[in-house]
Each structure stands twice: as structure tokens, then as C-alpha cells.
User: What shape does this take?
Amino acid sequence: MADINGVTLNAGSGPTVYYTITYSKSRPNNSQMTYNFTIAAALGSSGSYIHSGYALLCTITVNGSSGQVRIKAADNDNWDGTTPRYLYVTVTCSSTTGNAAQGVRFRVVSDGRMSLSSGVIDNSSYTVTSSALLTTACGAPSACSVSPTVAEGNAALSWSGASAGTNNAITGFEIQYSDSANNADWGSWTALTTVSSSSASGSLSVAPPSTRGSYRRFRIRTQGAAGSSYYSGWTVSSNSVRKNTPPEKASVLTASPSVYSEGPITLTWSGASGGTSPIKGYMLASKTSTDGSTWTSWNVLENFDLSASSGTRTAAASTTPGTYTKYGLWTIDTLDVYSAEQVSNTILCVAAACDEPTIAAPKNGAFTYNLNPRVLLTTGAQPNEQVVQVKIGAESWQDGVNNPSLFSPSGAVGGSAAVMFKAESQTAGAKTLTVRCVNPDFEAPSAEISRSLTVLASPFEEISANETKVKASHITALRTAINIVRNYYGLAPVSWSEEITSGRTEVKNWPLHILEIRSAVEPVIAVINQYSTDSGFAVPEPDWEELGTGRPRAAAMNQLSELILSL
Assistant: This one.
């Protein structure tokens, strides 16, 4: 189809009307075009006319958008001769393609009081031509970030989502940086580099700030072929990279035992922390001395992975009597940066230490209702004469020589000897129990064995004869308590023959329940009495109360609860 510019259309007869159409155009943006039409409307001959009562209305439509102008009014408008009438119509329509033909509908209708065929036309045979698209700026990257956010060396700055402008291809990216001490207050932007690229995305290796602990962010804009006037705006990175700070050394490092005859040595530490990156592990080293004054250089023993801020580790030590040893521990972060060293206490190698004892009870993490909790242990095989030492929490060591009333047997004992320790009265709460053996001269202690335990308050309600009604909860409390005690002594829990439900379990079954609980208690007594039969330590075989008939007897219930509290 031909362009309508300069085209003359004739419409109707008696008279014929000639429409000569021209237009100018402009592009307000790259999604629209504005067309300014000029219509020269003229009658066909000098004697032609269209008078009152007849009217003509012109509509021009381009790509769904229209504009109108009245060519002739119905009243007070007489049109005579060939002198043209000049009329103007503006149409703004959608247009996303430059230099493209768009169809035009030129339509004139009769809308007067009297019907008119002259000048009436509906023509869609022509087009207008859009202007070239406007040059536009490039689009900035929609995403920009740096990884990792904590770095010892370089990090990767990545961006994506950049776009070319119209008539403006991507030619590269301009990158700047800004530093901050607190990730909030930023310094001025400093030029970093320009990356030549035609891609919408990319990456660049970038350095963190030189000052440890400081932050660096970046911004980037897209460069285009149309020149700097058509560069994109800036996109600031969504995060920043921080220069790594070293980890902190452990606040305490303890080597034990402080006096030993053979290794390994147990190292315990706490208080380490990462800097700006987490703890990855530690380096352990040792140095030795023959006089406790002049020391060798550090000898690295190992590097090991451990993310915790505290821990324990075994280490080799000199087996030459009279040799002093101390250890150094360095914290290592995930970026392989080392802290300053933490130095342990000094340990001394002496004659052979006692073998390590074993603890049969309590089971680690167990609970007891006994305010004087028992410890059942066996000494190590060597030497043939040794002293058991026990401490609870931060209390002083207690032993069979200086505290004979707490140990059975008391004094020095032989190797592989069964020993019971019965603690002084404790308050309810969590406890840490530590056991070791030493020779009678209180030198060369064994390795220390620790157990955690919790002393519980009594869970039992006092049951008074002929007053307290024994309920399901009383039986349930006994069941729960004896299984807790069994666990303390390393025995498996009992599975009960019948579930007890308040208001549903028949009272006639209570003797069976009591017998089951008694049967669960007796193995505990047997375990205890394997370690001592001495009065005050052993548990006498119970003289069980008669069960009788009818409702549960208070004496039988109280006997069980009192016995459980004493185990």
C-alpha cells in the first residue's frame, strides 16, 4: 500500500468532493507516534455547493487511535465553489517499530439533518510511515553482588540484567568502589576499572579494603555505543566485602594431668572465636624443658578441623622423667588466618601414673533422687596400691585416706578394686563428677574420668494411712522414678504389663503393679551391693510390707518411695 502523504481522494458526486491529505510526524517516545494531518477539502467545480442542512464529519484512524475534525456544519455553513477548506487532525498511536508502515483509515460520514452522498468516503488503502526509533540509554544491571562477603584475598563481583538501549549497543561497564569502617557510613566513590563487554552480565575479581575489618561496596553502570550521554544509571552492589580479621585465641588452655608418667595428655580449651570468618580448626604445638626455665622452640604436632570455640584434644608428651612440657594452641579461621597462640600450663613427667579407673555408675547424664549420690567404680589394674579421689563440681578432691567415711573400702586399695563413694549431702541440680586414682604419695595421678549427673527433688507425695487416696498418679510416679534410677545404674528401663489410666484402671490390680515395681528395684540393689557390703554403703535387702487386699496400703507405697530416694 502507498503512503497517504500528498494523496487526493475523491468522494461522492453532485458535487464530488476532493480530499488532499498531507501529514507531518513526530515520535514522542519509542512506543508512540504522533501524526499531524492536514486535509484540503474542495468541491469539484466552481458552480458546486453544499448548503444548510448537510454536514460532514471526518475521522482518521491509525493503529486503533483516532482523531476527528468537522468538514462542514449542518447549519450556518454554506460551502460554495472550489476554494479548499483546510482542516487539521492529530492522531497519537502506538508505534514500537521505526520506519514502519501503519495503515490509515480515512473516513468521512454525513451527520447533518439531511442525508448527503457528496464527500462521504471510507478508505483504508493507504499508510503512514513511522519515524525512526529514538536513541535511548542503556539499562543498568538489575543485580550486582560480591562473593564472598568476607575475604582475605580477592572476591568476585558479579552483575547481570544489563540491557542495550535503542540504537545503543552495550560496549562495556564502568565500575567504582567506596569503603566504610562500619558498613553504614561510606566514603566517596573511586574509579576502579572499565570492563569491555557486549554481554548483559559479567564478573570481575576485586580486592577488599586494605584495612582489616573494613567494608567495600561497588557500583556499576552500562556503557553504550551512543556515547556517555546514553550510559545507564548506576547500580550499587546489594552487599559488600569485608577484609577478614584474624580469629581470637582460646582464653584458656589446660593440659592434664599436670603430673604424669605416660601419655597421652588431655588438652582442654575454651573462649576461642572467629574474627570476621568462622573457626575452621586449630594448630597444636609443644615445647619442652629440662629445668622449667629454658625451653625449646615450638614443635608443631598437628593441624585439625574443629569449628567449636572450645574442645578437648589428646596430645603426645615426653615420657622422659623430669621433662617439662607445655602446649601452644592457635585458632585458624576458614580463610586460613591464624590467631596468636594460647599457652597451656606446664606439665611434668614423673614415674608411672596410675591406670585409669572405670565408672559403672552413674551413667553419664543420668538423674538420681539420692541427695548422697553413690559412685560405683573400679580402679585401674596398676599399681597394686592406689588411692581413689573424687570431686563434685569445683569442690576439692576427696579421697579414701583423708575422707574415709565417704569411701568403701577406705584408704589405699589394690588394682582392679571395686570401690563405692557416697557423696556428702548435695543440693538438687546438675553436677559434674570427676574421678581419678593416685599412688599413696599422691603423685602420678591417673587420667581423670568425668560424668555429668543431676540430683532431683523427690517426686513423691506423702501418703497417709486412712487419709490419702492412692491414685493412678502415685503408681505412675513410682514407675517413672525407678526407671530413672535404673538408668543411673546402667540398667534398662522396665516395660510395664498394664498402662495405668486415672479413672479406668481397676484398683484390684494394684498388688500386681506394686510387685512389678519391687521387681524393678531389686536389680538396682544387687548392682549396688556388688561394690560394698559395708553398713552405710550397702542397701539392706528390703523386708517388703504386706500388700493385703482392697485398696493400696500407704505403708507399701511409702516403703517403695523411701527406698527409691535412698538408691
